[in-house]
Design brief:
The chain is 29% helix and 24% strand. It has eleven helices and 20 strands. The strands form five sheets. It has an eight-stranded parallel beta sheet with strand order 11-8-7-6-5-2-1-12. It has a six-stranded antiparallel beta sheet with strand order 13-14-15-20-17-18, with helices on one face. It has a two-stranded antiparallel sheet with strand order 3-4. Helix 6 packs across helix 7 and helix 9 runs parallel beside helix 11. The protein starts with a helix and ends with a strand. Bound molecules: alpha-D-galactopyranose. Alpha-D-galactopyranose binds next to loops.
Amino acid sequence: MKKQLISTFVFLFLVLCATAFAQESSPSKGLALTPPMGWNTWNKFACNVSEELVKGAADAMVSSGMKDAGYQYIVIDDCWQEKRDDKGNVVPYADRFPNGMKAVADYVHSKGLKFGIYSDAGKKTCGGKPGGLGHEYQDAISYASWGVDYLKYDWCNTVPGQDAKASYKNIREALDSSGRPIVLSICEWGSHEPWLWGEEAGGNLWRTTGDIQDRWAGKKEWAPGICCNNGVLAIVDQNEPLYSHAGPGHWNDPDMLEVGNGGMTTTEYRSHFSLWAIMAAPLMAGNDIRNMTPEIRDILTNKEVIAIDQDALGQQGRRVGKDGDLEVWSKQLQDGSRAVLLLNRGSSQQTVTANWEQIGYPAHLNATVRDLWAHKDLGRSTGKFSAPVESHGVVVVTVRP
Ligand code: GLA
């Protein structure tokens, strides 16, 4: 009896060790310790994806200074997949990708960048192309053999009763079994509250909202009763309360950037980018980076604002003060200082004030303030910082004791 008990304990101990070792040695361990940065085809090009476009974007990511500013992933979104062959392997459109996907990935890698692709947990993608359901392990092997580093996995055309957490866990395990470290971007629009289970399922980021639209305010229904496309402010208001779920390796994703797509003013794009940065959001550019104005390039490559997004502490900043249209946001940084964002949602310029207590400092503290868009030190302040903020604009500063 005693012997039996001892061997049961030894067995359980070995199982525990093996599980711990498997988790330790998983290829996806340690991915996305800061929010992923890159470029994705969807917001600007929708289904018009091709080898030529992707290569051009990779070239532009280097020549525009985006790579130097921290952008890494070049991601092909929906519509690259034409069919499955008679063995069930997913096949890209031959006319758009005449050299196959590996050639595209090799080109992206040759620029010192990483390569991402898109599929779907259901039978078909949102664009009606072959989805991943039932082919998870087979697709993971294809992706790994092509050199995929990032997978965005959507939630269209799932079957009734399909469990979201189990589906994403399944694709994570399939990706891991390929042996290649692959970032998993969960794209189920927040409907099953992925912030509650996304990390456990092995996701590195999860969409918290419906699709972003290239506009500042409001929501528009797709069709009567089918909600919603989201402007920047609507997305911000949905993503902000979820701050406690974000951290290194697992991020809330308020969707890709619209900066440079033409629907907002330069001021609004600067605010959009700054709000994503203070929310530690993934920064996936969604414009035509081969052809952007200097103003748009300057927004996307503002290294001081990007440093806020990429801060190693990984805290998602949040709203700490609101007075009508005027808001104060704060994000603690690894060195103990704060990034502070003053937002004016209103239609005319107004002065916004951040008090030290709001950002977690004592009122008597004398701190240095630096403006991250003007790239200017503003001297020392005690107790608070005030600045005029233009309509739909932001002022972003660091406050350092
Ligand atoms: C969904 C996603 C988008 C995009 C499209 C592609 O709407 O949320 O980001 O990937 O599908 O069809």
